[in-house]
Write a structure and sequence with these properties.
The chain is of the alpha/beta class. The strands form five sheets. Strands 8-7-6-9-10-12-11-13 form an eight-stranded mixed beta sheet, sandwiched between helices. Strands 1-3-2 form a three-stranded antiparallel beta sheet. Strands 15-16-17 form a three-stranded antiparallel beta sheet. The radius of gyration is 26 Å and the shape is globular.
Length: about 500
């Protein structure tokens, strides 16, 4: 990027202030942009198709339309139109910030600046996020030093971030800085690292543009820039994509850190304990290989065990792809056209790489790690959750960790003396065979969290139904045992472990 202050990563402050004011005055928000070209065009943009949006703006020359074309779609504009749309910053201000290249009467974008809405436990709002031109704007394959904008994976991780307060957060592999901005909402200090100087400049630009302080950037790989330091939280959307290490295969900085196979995620998991304060948490997205001789989640379990510090682990596999589907996903992501000779060559390189290691599939999911608090039982949960999940999960994950800690202090006798209530998003469904008086299937449905559906027996269904915070669990279980004419002690031994699971997953809540 050009236009940066000499010998500094920091953008020109006066240009930032001017641009921020102009964007606000023009109403350059996510909702306004979406309304400007309509729902169909907005959906098409998500698929890399810009023509419908261009048609939607064809008859408009107002400031919002000019900014949509120039900064969102990456189309050139006249200096006159840009100066009118940004009366304070002007086209010259965009050039000083490295966002455009000026010609005689033409402004050519060199980056995208898009509005992005957010919502978390602290409220809702929007950011303006600067990133490199994407493949739709470029009209071809991405350069290997590309700095990615806000995509599905980054939004997923932002939604997963815990919203409990922290003092210091590390955003490892910050990219354009979206995770750093999200982390800053719950922590006064954020250190953002990346192997790309270009990414660090985008991060500082985005922090300045959104008037966010407390973000420090450092250059380097993995934990090298913060060696010897500790953080309350680490977040990372790391460059975890599995890429063949052979000549002729592009290595994109935003998705590829130069490791073989899934070694990057393994290095993160086994090493993150060194920079976590006791009780500190780490959250990341990642891939793991399934091999002919090894289950993918069991390989992740081995990485956790290799940590020098005991780690709690909650690993959620959301998807699993076979080698061909995985290769096609990332070759297309780089902008290579399906059906071309180059596409076929790259696909074959991926398949040969997988075959060499005996990879049968690749899992993708969420990793929540915590440096196990002293005196607490370790959390070791490795699960596959493939159903659709709606909304951000950060609050749910935080509540689950808090529930785990409370449960860890309660033996079964203490748990039996505790009262619980049903989660507000829980419903029950009963299925009967025609003419049958008793249900053949009883299900508990969770409306929030991971949207789990559990089959339960009549005893557990009765306990959940009676859990209104009035009577202790032990009293309720004894009453149910009397009703069902079963041994109360045996029923307690059966139900209390399942109550622990229901509390952790959010079906029940400790009072």
């Amino acid at each position: 990027m050009n236009g940066w202050v000499s010998d500094s990563r920091h953008p020109d402050p006066s240009s930032i202030v001017a641009l921020r004011a102009d964007l606000a005055a023009a109403g350059y928000t996510a909702d306004a942009v979406r309304a400007a070209w309509g729902a169909l065009a907005d959906d098409a943009i998500g698929r890399g198709l810009l023509a419908p949006a261009r048609r939607g703006l064809a008859d408009r020359a107002d400031a919002l339309a000019v900014l949509c074309r120039l900064l969102f779609l990456g189309d050139p504009a006249s200096v006159t139109d840009v100066d009118a749309a940004l009366p304070t910053a002007g086209a010259a201000g965009l050039e000083r910030l490295g966002l455009v290249r000026l010609g005689a009467d033409t402004v050519t974008p060199t980056a995208l600046l898009r509005p992005q809405g957010y919502a978390d436990a602290g409220g809702s709002g929007q950011w303006w996020i600067v990133s490199d031109l994407d493949e739709a704007a470029l009209g071809g394959a991405l350069p290997t030093g590309h700095v990615l904008g806000v995509g599905g994976a980054s939004l997923t991780l932002a939604g997963l971030q815990l919203d409990t307060p922290a003092q210091r957060v590390l955003d490892l592999g910050t990219g354009c800085g979206i995770q750093a901005l999200r982390a800053r909402r719950s922590a006064p200090r954020v250190v953002a690292t990346d192997v790309s100087e270009r990414a660090l400049r985008f991060t500082l630009l985005n922090a300045a543009l959104n008037d966010v302080d407390g973000v420090e950037v450092r250059h380097g790989s993995l934990f090298e820039p913060v060696a010897g330091e500790e953080f309350d939280r680490v977040v990372s959307n790391p460059p975890f994509v599995i890429t063949p290490r052979v000549a002729g295969v592009p290595e994109y900085e935003y998705r590829d850190a130069g490791f073989a196979g899934d070694d990057l995620v393994a290095a993160f998991v086994s090493g993150v304990g060194d920079v976590l304060a006791p009780g500190g948490t780490a959250q990341l997205l990642g891939n793991w290989e399934y091999r002919e001789d090894a289950d993918g989640l069991e390989r992740v379990r081995a990485w956790v065990a290799a940590s020098a510090h005991p780690l709690d682990a909650w690993i959620v596999e959301r998807e699993r792809l076979d080698p061909l589907a995985y290769a096609e996903l990332w070759v297309r992501d780089g902008g290579t056209t399906p059906g071309s000779p180059e596409y076929a060559r790259l696909i074959d390189a991926w398949l040969a790489d997988f075959a060499e290691r005996g990879v049968t599939s690749v899992g993708f999911g969420y990793l929540l790690l915590r440096r196990t608090p002293i005196g607490m039982p370790p959390l070791a949960r490795y699960e596959r959750v493939t159903q659709p999940v709606g909304g951000a999960l950060g609050t749910h994950l935080g509540e689950a960790l808090a529930a785990w800690d409370r449960l860890g202090l309660l033996d079964d006798d203490a748990l039996a003396d505790t009262t619980v209530i049903v989660g507000p998003d829980v419903t029950e469904a009963r299925h009967h065979r025609p003419g049958a008086e008793e249900p053949s299937v009883i299900e508990l449905h969770q409306g929030g969290g991971f949207g789990r559906v559990l089959n339960v027996d009549p005893a557990l269904a009765a306990l959940v139904g009676a859990s209104d915070g009035d009577l202790p669990l032990g009293v309720l279980i004894d009453a149910i045992a009397d009703l069902l004419e079963v041994d109360a002690g045996a029923l307690r031994a059966d139900l209390l472990p399942r109550v622990r699971e229901l509390v952790f997953t959010g079906f029940l809540r400790l009072v």
